[in-house]
């Protein structure tokens, strides 16, 4: 009887503690090297301007609308929505940064959040970079 | 035996609570994480090529067109040819609103007559506003010099009377894009931009 009551109490604490943090996640989880690698890809085919053009085409192709962009800083932020059912909607917000690297290389980094959570699922970034690879190729071939 | 049954019931309750909380915390479907590309048909509908003397003239006309469509600008990045705007419009027609108010009156009357709560609130659960976000990107064509490609993406959010987001979707109806591009073409003509 007693151990069972303790078990119920422990489960309750675990669940409540796990679901409802006491302070907002201001600093995030701190990007680990592994997730930074998942989010980043280097290209040596196009310059920054054409890479940003390809990023824009990719985001629009994936259904994003653009929230913010700055060519000088090389940032583009967009949002896309996913509808599952009434009152069960999800919004993905992605920021892509394009930076000149040494030589003729350009580095592209994407980080995304889905509703209130940072996306750590590598598949999301793989989907994005697969579409970007295609857009970069088309830009290189001068295809609109 | 009774003690054993009570303990088992408590364990079942705890398992149910755990399942409920886990479902509440991690209720995001796998598809929400995926990024499928648009179909070629949608891409084609969202894109139109214009032959204009320079990028500035088409962007200036596009700015005026978005204002004509009653959008407010959220962001403009000239170097990348980005114009993004949003607006909130009324979702319900007056007839729909009147019908729902009548439905609520009927529900309240029935509740009084039968003495039971029938769970009214049809009007409160009705659609209230549609929030629209539009992005127009105008870039020089890579294929043909002197041409500019314009691509539009639009999202809508349906918000009910309680301020809750009911439905979200990307607009993919080709007629919408066709109308915007026709208006852009007309505006370019009216502004005297050679096409």
Task: Report on this structure.
The complex is a heterodimer of chains A (144) and B (195). Chain A has one domain: 2-Layer Sandwich (TATA-Binding Protein), CATH 3.30.310. Helices cover 40% and strands 31% of the residues of chain A. In chain A, helix 3 packs across helix 4. Chain A is elongated and about 70 Å long. Chain B has 195 residues and is of the alpha+beta class. Chain B has a domain of 113 residues: Kinase associated domain 1, KA1 (TATA-Binding Protein, 2-Layer Sandwich). In chain B, strands 1, 2, 3, 4, 5 and 6 form a six-stranded antiparallel sheet that branches. In chain B, a hairpin with a 4-residue loop joins strand 5 and strand 6. In chain B, helix 3 packs across helix 5. The longest helix of chain B has 24 residues. The radius of gyration of chain B is 26 Å and the shape is elongated. Chain B starts with a helix and ends in a 5-residue tail after the last helix.
Shape of chain A: elongated
Give the CATH H-level superfamily of chain A: Kinase associated domain 1, KA1
CATH architecture of the domain at 41-91 and 129-190 in chain B: 2-Layer Sandwich
| Strand residues, percent of chain B | 25-35%
Low-confidence stretches of chain A: none
Count of helical regions of chain A: 4
First-to-last CA distance of chain B = 89 Å
Going by helix content, strand content and strand pairing, the class of chain A is alpha+beta
Distance between the termini of chain A: 71 Å
Overall average pLDDT of chain A: 87
* Overall pLDDT score of chain B: 81
């Amino acid at each position: 009887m007693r151990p069972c009551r303790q078990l119920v109490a422990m489960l309750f604490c675990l669940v409540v503690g796990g679901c409802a943090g006491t302070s907002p996640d201001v600093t995030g989880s701190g990007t680990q090297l592994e997730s930074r690698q998942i989010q980043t890809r280097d290209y040596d085919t196009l310059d920054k301007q054409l890479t940003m053009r390809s990023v824009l085409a990719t985001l629009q192709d994936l259904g994003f609308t653009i929230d913010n962009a700055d060519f000088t800083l090389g940032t583009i932020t967009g949002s896309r929505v996913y509808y599952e059912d009434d009152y069960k909607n999800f919004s993905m917000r992605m920021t892509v940064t394009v930076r000149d690297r040494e030589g003729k290389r350009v580095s592209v980094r994407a980080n995304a959040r889905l509703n209130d959570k940072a996306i750590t699922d590598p598949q999301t970034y793989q989907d994005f970079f697969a579409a970007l690879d295609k857009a970069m190729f088309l830009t290189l071939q001068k295809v609109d | 035996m009774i003690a054993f049954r009570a303990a088992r019931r408590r364990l079942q309750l705890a398992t149910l609570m755990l399942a409920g909380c886990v479902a509440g915390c991690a209720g995001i479907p796998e598809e929400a994480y995926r990024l499928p590309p648009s179909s070629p048909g949608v891409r084609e509908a969202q894109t139109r090529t214009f032959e204009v003397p320079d990028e500035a003239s088409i962007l200036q006309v596009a700015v005026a067109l978005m204002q004509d469509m009653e959008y407010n600008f959220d962001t403009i990045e000239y170097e990348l040819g980005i114009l993004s705007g949003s607006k909130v419009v009324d979702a319900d027609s007056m007839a729909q609103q009147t019908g729902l108010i009548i439905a609520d009156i009927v529900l309240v009357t029935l509740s009084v007559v039968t003495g039971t709560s029938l769970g009214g609130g049809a009007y409160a659960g009705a659609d209230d506003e549609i929030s629209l976000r539009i992005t127009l990107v105008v870039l020089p064509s890579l294929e043909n010099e002197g041409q500019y490609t314009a691509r539009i993406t639009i999202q809508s959010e349906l918000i009910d009377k309680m301020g809750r987001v009911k439905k979200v979707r990307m607009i993919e109806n080709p007629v919408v894009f066709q109308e915007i591009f026709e208006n852009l073409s007309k505006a370019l003509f009216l502004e005297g931009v050679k096409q």
